Amino acid sequence: MDFETTVATLNSLLGRKQPAEFDSSWIRRNAPRCYRFIQENVRREYGGIDWDRLTYALDRRFQRLWRPRRIAKKPIPYEDRVEVQTILNKYRDKMYVFIAASDKNERRIRDVIGISLVRLAQSGNLLARLQLMELLKYTIDDWIERHYLVSRWRGYEAEMQKQLDACIRRYRYTGSFFTYVFRTLEYAGRGIVRLRVYSLDQGRKLWSSVE
Fold first, then answer.
1. How far apart are the first and last CA of the chain?
2. CB under 8 Å to 56, separation ≥6 — which residues?
3. Tell me: the pLDDT tens digits for 95-143?
4. What are the boundaries of each domain within the chain?
5. I need a surface site. Which of 119, 130, 153, 191 has the fewest CB within 10 A?
6. Do the Cβ atoms of 143 and 150 come closer than 8 Å?
């Protein structure tokens, strides 16, 4: 069994059984061979099963049915640079995707890196959160230049920081994390009064008119 066969088997099984939702326990009960393969081969860089990689590969109609196990207790904050560096080292030559993701494949790579950092941050790693915030800034700067509603966040960095924190904390769905962030900023941006930014020359003219 390989990854493609596992995904195809689960797609077929989900199509036949049509569960209202499913999780790792459902896979273990209904497709034990698939579960064993996943447990042994679909792993995160810093340990544990990479359920995001698996569910992202499923048919879109099944992705939204995934319900990961909720963490009962609030994670204890910690700092582990090795966990973060393990992810960054693996994708060292792909980090440009946060500045300019030109196609679907590069946007997918951006999501893979981003979601890995999100899961670490949700586990309590403060350094993962800081690293993700830094990388998000490059992508959001590009959105601000190209999208009207997102551009309204210019000058509201503190408020935007709160929105990003909430996105990292709440993200559960295994679809695109960056699409989730974009839609959040776009929707929330509708209620923002756009700040007017003056150039130095415009400021001088405005000051002269006041005088």
1. 78
2. 63, 111, 174, 175
3. 999 998 889 999 999 999 999 999 999 999 999 999 999 999 999 999 9
4. 3-63, 81-189
5. 191
6. yes
Length of the chain: 211
Full DSSP string of the chain: --HHHHHHHHHHHHHHH--S-B-HHHHHHH-HHHHHHHHHH-B-TTSSB-HHHHHHHS-HHHHTTB-PPPPSSPPPPB--HHHHHHHHHHTGGGGGGGT---SHHHHHHHHHHHHHHHHHHHTTBHHHHHHHHHHHHHHHHHHHHH-HHHHTTTT-HHHHHHHHHHHHHH---SS-HHHHHHHHHHHHHTTPPPPPPPPHHHHHHHHHHH-
Q: Which residue has the tokens 């099984």?
A: 13
Interatomic CA distance for residues 173 and 156, integer angstroms: 27
Report pTM: 0.79
The identity of residue 194, as a single letter, is R
Neighbouring residues of 119: CB distance < 8 A, sequence distance ≥ 6: 44, 52
CA distance 98 to 119: 18
207-to-50, 59, 169, 198, 199 alpha-carbon distances in Å: 58, 59, 45, 12, 12
Cβ atoms 173, 180 nearer than 8 A = yes
Q: What is the pLDDT of residues 166-204, one digit of tens each?
A: 999 999 876 789 999 999 999 888 877 765 554 455 544
